[in-house]
Amino acid sequence: MSANDFNTPITPELVKEHGLNEEEYKLVLEIMGREPNINELGIFSVMWSEHCSYKSSKKWLKTLPTKADWVIQGPGENAGVIDIGDGQAAVFKMESHNHPSFIEPYQGAATGVGGIMRDVFTMGARPIANLNALRFGEADHPKTRHLLSGVVEGIGGYGNCMGVPTIGGETNFHASYNGNILVNAMTVGLADADNIFYSAAAGIGNPVVYVGSKTGRDGIHGATMASAEFDDDSEEKRPTVQVGDPFTEKLLLEACLELMATDMIVAIQDMGAAGLTSSSFEMASKGGVGVELWLDKVPMREEGMTPYELMLSESQERMLMVLRPGCEDAAKAIFDKWELDFAVIGILTDTKRMVLKWHGDVAGDLPIDPLAEASPEYDRPWEPTPKQDRIDPESISAKVSHVEALKTLIASPDLASRRWIWEQYDHLVMGNTIVRPGGDAGVVRVQGTNKGIAATTDCTPRYVMADPVEGGKQAVAEAYRNLVATGAKPLAITDNMNFGNPERPRIMGQFVGACQGIGEACIALEFPVVSGNVSLYNETNGVGIMPTPAIGGVGVISDLGHHATIGIKRDDSALIMIGA
Amino acid sequence: MKARVHVTLKNGVLDPQGKAVHHALQGLGFDGVNDVRQGKFIELELDGTDAAKAEAEVKEMCEKLLANTVIEDYSIELA
Amino acid sequence: MKARVHVTLKNGVLDPQGKAVHHALQGLGFDGVNDVRQGKFIELELDGTDAAKAEAEVKEMCEKLLANTVIEDYSIELA
Amino acid sequence: MKSAVILFPGINRENDAIAALEQATGTKPVVVWHGETELPKTDIIMVPGGFSYGDYLRCGAMAAKSPIMRAVAERAKAGVTILGVCNGFQILTEAGLLPGALMRNASLKFICKNTHLKIENADTRFTNQYKAGDFVDYPVAHHDGNFFADSETLDRLEGEGRVILRYCDANGVVDPATNLNGSQRNIAGIINEAGNVLGMMPHPENAIDPLHGGTDGRNLFKSLVEAAS
Ligand SMILES: Nc1ncnc2c1ncn2[C@@H]1O[C@H](COP(=O)(O)OP(=O)(O)O)[C@@H](O)[C@H]1O
What we know:
The complex is a heterotetramer, with 1 copy of chain A, 2 copies of chain B and 1 copy of chain D.
Chain A: H1 12-17, H2 22-32, H3 38-47, H4 50-53, H5 58-61, E1 71-73, E2 80-83, E3 88-96, H6 98-103, H7 105-121, E4 126-136, H8 144-162, E5 166-173, E6 182-192, E7 207-212, H9 222-225, H10 246-260, E8 265-270, H11 275-287, E9 290-294, H12 307-312, E10 318-323, H13 328-337, E11 341-349, E12 353-358, E13 361-367, H14 368-372, H15 402-411, H16 419-422, E14 433-435, E15 442-445, E16 452-458, H17 461-466, H18 468-484, E17 489-498, H19 505-525, E18 529-535, E19 539-540, E20 543-544, E21 548-557
Parallel strand pairs in A: 4-5, 9-12, 17-18
Antiparallel strand pairs in A: 1-2, 2-3, 3-6, 4-6, 7-10, 7-11, 8-10, 9-11, 12-13, 14-15, 15-16, 16-21, 17-21, 19-20
Helix pairs in contact in A: 7-8, 7-10, 8-10, 10-13, 18-19
Chain B: E1 2-9, H1 16-27, E2 33-46, H2 51-66, E3 72-78
Chain D: E1 3-7, H1 14-25, E2 30-33, E3 44-47, H2 68-77, E4 81-85, H3 87-94, E5 101-103, E6 111-119, E7 135-142, E8 146-148, H4 151-159, E9 163-168, E10 187-191, E11 197-200, H5 218-228
Parallel strand pairs in D: 1-2, 1-3, 3-4, 4-11
Antiparallel strand pairs in D: 5-8, 6-7, 6-9, 9-10, 10-11
């Protein structure tokens, strides 16, 4: 496709390649009032992918409880925000990078960590803790060793370089993940409660500014890939892998926080999946404005890039901002200091349309709201998971002694020590780590105070498999307990819903059940959902993963003089069991 | 026998190291540099004298371990 | 003009990466490998056409930045 | 007592360094940006840990060429106390202020954990609050802490009492089994000939608060203050 060939004929095959079904394409024609050009088709394709549009999950996510007195921002922004007292806020979210990590474990995991950190610092928060929830195939599956070591190195490679301690996580092994591992990364940030940044664009005529790394041909169609089932050929889709540059992200973090200390930013959004497309559409849609983008002004890494590629590239370490008018030079000076690209690439308009300009020509012209807000929403058919039979413990004969059984348990990959993993993560940088990995939840001190933030990730997929509602509840309850066990008051959760193909009613039923269970537990515990992420189509050759709604919980310890750790402190201590 | 293997990033793949080195060279006043790419260079000492066999074996090593063919290309020279 | 720079560890300097690669190759069943050394391969795109000048400049880049001459040797090819 | 912390792009343990220096000296250190060419007058200069320039090419290589390093080298010559920790150690070796080089850990893995260290020489401005033969507990967090120098240099370092810290176990045993990262002769920290520049891989600044799980690092900073006052 040459640079200004906007007239590539739109064939049914091309539409299909872009992951749009017939109904969806009909809707495209209706919205456009004409046939889209290739750039526009590409934009519909990524905006309406499962990954960006949440079309299968939206209906159910809306049922989750999201409110409490301490919730400043619930789901819908880059990350959730809760009040932690003293004018401070905790900003956090969890996000999956499952498919890219299976294809290239190091880079997939690394860019997953980079992405979630951007989600948090876009909101004006300095990341202060990372966690991750990992699921691999069986320990002796030929791929597991390679995937595990690559993922762990990737998480460490990015997080360590950023100087954010990785303080916890969880790791499981099960055959259902043999061909589809799960890599969920969570970041907790700290912000001033009165200086949170949002993504809604405002101010007709205000400049739209691009900062960070240059755009290359990375991960084009990554977002659509993340929503497509795997088959044995998918290892061939490799060149879409993005390479992370944590050094640049560290500079981007410092530069953004420096700019955020001024009052120059009107709105800001990181460029994650579907890059410039989703960031610009989301900002415009939330603000009810239009945008004119001058794509030829986008900093480019390679020659001959097309508008299509620029709109769909998933190059990492980039941000889109709307600035107050006249601030361009002062803002640029900050990015110059940090040696990052800075370019004014457009302007806000009152048209509620996205107009893409390419050296003066119109390369695309789309209405914003129908793409962003009125994307397809499905009420997919679902069936509940049949109840399991109750097993009578008397009916099982003890084949081995208690000691043998205990040894087997301790040696099992699911229970073995995870030290090998977390020793590869810098869990001490920033000098505020109070409870290190290896306990129930990690705890970091809020710099300069005697207050701590506790964070944990939890889920037991086989419980969810057996009974999605109860399993969903249990995951929330476990997160709650892990926080309490450090002395923290649990405040809110983020969730990462990893499931198989939602077009299968049984799997959709798992999703619906888990949402119900999570919702019930959250209400019972006053532990609302403030952010989250959905990853569907996690299956290989038609076999789905175990349903895995990973829960990331956050709580606050008001006085670190009274925190608790897992170790037994004295050898004459009495052990007491409490609870049901 | 000796094998020399070059492992380089595929075209179009971001090279953060090359980028940083380029920048540092500019900082040191080397203005005439237009691009820098950083790769790996691996030297192997091999048993045997059959070049064709060695080449096939090194190729297998590259595919299995030395190169990450998702993002890297490799080339082999025997000496 | 293009310059290709090889940076390799000096003789006698222990090479942890080479050693680990060697070990991993053995683990994969490649028994015929006697030694592995890992170095860097840096490609530079240069302005200008004067080979002698370019060579001198790249040499300076190596001395100043690209190689750590305490532990590394370098070699330069122009193309 | 005045101190300065040098900040390169990609450094990430500067706040840990600042906290430790502030605790020991009673005043907040001045932070100096890598692009500066002059240093304020201070008694102590610390080059903190992190990933300057992403650890790309070689750890510390690009930072060592920053404009500010010329000023640091001058201060080193003038006898000012200079402490390089982790990436700071790598930068000081790359800048030629300390001998040797730091290579990839023998395990090839990043290692973050507490380790025991033997104080080999307590008669320095960095260790005067310890006793020779003491062993202390600091964390490490690095990917490239594998100290290398040729045997001549190593002999010299040892002969001149310039090996300050070695990796050991809880009983102070220094042997290959307690060598955390493959460093020649278990070396974790060395000083320059004049004795005013220390480079070390472990992080005393992450062991200064009971909430860190230990305060063994405090005496290192106290030593600096003691020596400078
Ligand atoms: N991927 C990981 N990253 C960081 N820490 C981890 C990771 N996996 C496990 N851990 C740590 O190891 C400990 C035990 O892990 P695991 O058994 O999976 O979790 P749990 O105790 O919640 O069942 C926890 O303290 C956890 O923080």
